[in-house]
C-alpha cells in the first residue's frame, strides 16, 4: 500500500491546475506577463468597469490571484489561499455577469468555475501531497476555513457594493446629461 491515495493525487492535480491558472492571470495584471496589461493597463480597465481606484483594484486582484494561486498550487495556507482566489473571481464574475453565463458570450462561467474550485479546495484541504501537510497544518487549521471564507465574503461584498454605487452614479450622470441635452 502506498502512503498516498487517489484523493491526494486528485487534490494535487486540482491545486496545480487551478493554482497555476490563477497565478498566471494574476501575473498578467501585476507584471504584464503572458500578454497581460500590467498594473497600469489593468488599472485603466478596472476603472472602466467601476472598480476605483483602478490601479489599487488591479493590485488587489493581482495579488489575490497570483498569491492565492501560488499558495494553492503549493498546498500552503490553503483556507486563506482558496478564499482569496475565490474573492478575486467573484469580482471578475461581477464584471462578466451582464453578458450572461457562458464564457463564449463574455459571461461569468470561467470566473465562477475557478472561484468555486478555489473555494472547494479551501474547504476540503490540500491533501497529503502539500506543504500544509509537510508543515503539520500550521496554517491550515479547521477554524481557519470559516474564518477565511467569512473574511473574504465580507470584503468582497464591500468591494462589490462600492462598485455598484459607482456604476449607478455614472448611469445617473449619463441620464442627467442626456435629459439636459434634450431641453
How would you sum up this structure, described in words?
The chain is mainly α and 183 residues long. It is built from 7 helices and no strands. Helix 1 crosses helix 2 and helix 1 (6-31) crosses helix 5 (109-124). The longest helix has 39 residues, at 144-182. The radius of gyration is 19 Å and the shape is elongated. The mean pLDDT is 94.
Describe the protein's topology.
Elements: H1 6-31, H2 38-48, H3 54-74, H4 78-96, H5 109-124, H6 131-134, H7 144-182
Question: Care to give the gist of this entry?
Answer:
With 183 residues, the protein is an all-alpha fold. 74% of the residues lie in helices and 0% in strands. The chain is built from seven helices and no strands.
Amino acid at each position: 500500500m502506498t502512503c498516498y491515495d487517489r484523493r491526494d493525487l486528485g487534490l494535487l492535480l486540482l491545486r496545480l491546475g487551478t493554482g497555476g491558472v490563477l497565478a498566471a492571470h494574476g501575473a498578467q495584471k501585476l507584471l504584464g506577463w503572458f500578454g497581460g496589461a500590467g498594473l497600469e493597463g489593468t488599472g485603466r480597465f478596472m476603472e472602466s468597469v467601476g472598480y476605483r481606484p483602478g490601479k489599487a483594484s488591479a493590485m488587489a486582484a493581482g495579488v489575490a490571484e497570483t498569491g492565492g494561486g501560488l499558495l494553492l498550487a503549493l498546498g500552503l495556507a490553503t483556507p486563506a489561499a482558496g478564499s482569496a482566489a475565490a474573492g478575486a473571481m467573484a469580482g471578475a464574475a461581477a464584471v462578466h455577469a451582464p453578458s450572461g453565463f457562458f464564457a463564449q458570450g463574455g459571461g461569468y462561467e470561467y470566473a465562477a468555475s475557478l472561484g468555486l474550485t478555489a473555494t472547494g479546495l479551501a474547504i476540503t484541504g490540500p491533501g497529503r501531497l502539500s506543504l500544509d501537510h509537510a508543515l503539520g497544518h500550521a496554517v491550515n487549521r479547521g477554524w481557519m476555513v470559516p474564518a477565511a471564507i467569512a473574511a473574504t465574503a465580507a470584503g468582497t461584498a464591500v468591494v462589490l457594493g462600492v462598485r455598484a454605487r459607482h456604476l449607478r452614479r455614472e448611469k445617473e450622470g449619463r441620464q442627467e446629461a442626456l435629459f439636459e441635452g434634450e431641453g
